[in-house]
Amino acid sequence: GDSVTQMEGPVTLSEEAFLTINCTYTATGYPSLFWYVQYPGEGLQLLLKATKADDKGSNKGFEATYRKETTSFHLEKGSVQVSDSAVYFCARKNTGFQKLVFGTGTRLLVSP
Amino acid sequence: GAGVSQSPRYKVAKRGQDVALRCDPISGHVSLFWYQQALGQGPEFLTYFQNEAQLDKSGLPSDRFFAERPEGSVSTLKIQRTQQEDSAVYLCASSLDGTGSYEQYFGPGTRLTVT
Hints:
Strand content of chain B: over 45%
Largest sheet of chain B: 7 strands, mixed
Distance between the termini of chain A: 41 Å
Oligomer: heterodimer
Largest interface: A-B, 20 and 26 residues
């Protein structure tokens, strides 16, 4: 069925380090892909999205490219900040359907 | 403007009790979703409303779970005869229309603990 697989955390980095959080999805249908972020004590927020192959979503210095050939949507940031510490969720939504299917989440911890 | 609000934020129930969780979506949003997030997991879809119509309830885990949105605005998720495995954070989200083209905005969630 439809699913999303994320790398397990926590990911621990020093400030200004390069970040990659891996996400792959099952190749069923033509999904839109999303990254959501959950800061401590806050609700889920959409970080970025891509709706078709080769699209790149970007926001707040984060980027992810929809790769159909590798069924991946890896999240990257060139230089992380302490304020980026949060849990990041990869998600998909099939065309014509409303519900989001989430991965298990990856906790990012950035130290000064 | 105001975002999605949920109440209560925390609920402790004894096993076997009934609970009701409330969601106030963003004003004017047509679509409303409920998700269940177990500890250390991602949210899992429970049910979806477009206005007052419940169009998808495929994620409800048992007939103890019931959701309604009678006037197409506020929604209530009811869990009857709660069990320990119902302990989770229940998230509500709303979206502007029913096409699936618009972002889902999430509330802060209700943390349910069943003892």
